[in-house]
Design goal:
Elements lengths: L1 H30 L3 H14 L16 E5 L4 H9 L3 E3 L5 E3 L6 E3 L2 H9 L4 E6 L7 E3 L1 E2 L6 H6 L5 E9 L5 H10 L2 H9 L18 E8 L3 H14 L3 E8 L1 H10 L4 E4 L5 H5 L2 E16 L6 E2 L1 H9 L10
Parallel strand pairs: 1-4, 1-5, 7-13, 9-10, 9-11
Antiparallel strand pairs: 2-3, 5-12, 6-12, 8-11, 8-12
Length: about 325
């Protein structure tokens, strides 16, 4: 009988010990750091170190996913020129040396979504299109801001052009362009995060009725949409159709008479001017080099961006 009681007591003690051990495991699990938290901690540590002279964090590693825009994109054209990805060959012809491994996005929206969904990605977009879903990195120590573009500290900028065929523009197109370049139109430009003309005169147009089409760059398109809304509030008789594609298509459509106004997020090419297009710079825009919000990369040099996009640098660890 005493033996049975002893066995029962031992079993009870063993069960309690097991339960206590289980409780301890549960507490440890609850207070442990999840893999996601570890990643965030690593990103935070890397971000804290970004104040050092090194442009890229030493904790960054892994293959780089390079994302570029399609041929014909004005943003691509400006980007490869500004960063030296485009160079002249022995014959003097300009050659785009963007790596063949680059993924291609056919619009600003797709570019943002691609970078936002890939922690290893790098891309570039219009500064005016930048939102909280991605992170713009400093270039050569300068942040991508309107003030820095105005001061010349941030040098990665390009014009937003609107072009029309000199001998065929209708009255609505002319009046709409006059509105864009007016004090009211340039105020819209500034409100949307671009650089406009602060000295523009007030709008004094004739407000003609009719329909026109505006077509081209997906970088210019978000700003153009707001300009159309503001102009139609003043001139309800204007019916303006906005067609978004790329800069080259916009210029070609304006030359061919498919649209009344073409949009380009770059300088016009000589052959486009020779075809009769007359361009107007409606705004200045920066090009933001973007990475995923969870990327430890906060800053790059111009040479590093060039090396990434030409395929010379393929792993983030090479930037340390």
């Amino acid at each position: 009988m005493c033996m049975k009681k002893a066995v029962s007591a031992i079993a009870a003690v063993t069960l309690c010990a097991a339960l206590l051990a289980g409780c301890g495991s549960t507490e440890n699990f609850g207070s442990s750091t999840s893999p996601a938290s570890n990643e965030n901690s690593a990103s935070t540590s890397a971000s804290s170190a970004s104040g050092e002279s090194s442009a890229a964090s030493t904790s960054a590693s892994g293959p780089i996913t390079v994302i570029s825009r399609e041929d014909g994109s004005g943003t691509r054209g400006a980007f490869i020129e500004l960063f030296g990805v485009e160079q002249k060959d022995d014959s003097g012809a300009k050659v785009d040396y963007t790596t063949e491994d680059a993924e291609i996005s056919n619009s600003t929206e797709v570019m943002i979504q691609s970078v936002a969904g890939n922690t290893a990605a790098i891309g570039y977009i219009s500064l005016g299109s930048l939102d909280e879903t991605v992170k713009a990195v400093k270039i050569d120590g300068a942040e991508a801001t309107v003030d820095n573009i105005k001061s010349g500290t941030y040098k990665v900028s390009r014009p937003f052009n609107v072009a029309m065929k000199g001998d065929s523009a209708n009255e609505v197109a002319k009046d709409f362009l006059a509105y864009i370049m007016s004090q009211e139109g340039q105020a819209v430009v500034s409100e949307k995060g671009y650089i406009g003309d602060d000295s523009a005169a007030p709008y004094a147009g004739t407000k003609p009725s009719g329909k026109i089409a505006v077509a081209g760059s997906s970088s210019v398109s978000p700003l153009m949409e707001k300009l159309i809304e503001a102009y139609q509030a003043l001139n309800p008789g204007a019916d303006i159709e906005l067609q978004t594609s790329d800069s080259t298509t916009g210029m070609t459509n304006a030359i061919d008479g498919v649209c009344d106004l073409g949009m380009a997020s770059r300088e016009l090419k000589q052959e486009e001017l020779d075809a009769g297009l007359v361009n107007t710079v409606i705004a200045t825009d920066g090009i933001a080099v973007i990475v995923n919000n969870d990327s430890p990369i906060d800053e790059l040099t111009s040479d590093q961006v060039k090396a990434i996009y030409t395929g010379e640098t393929t792993d983030w660890s090479e930037l340390a």
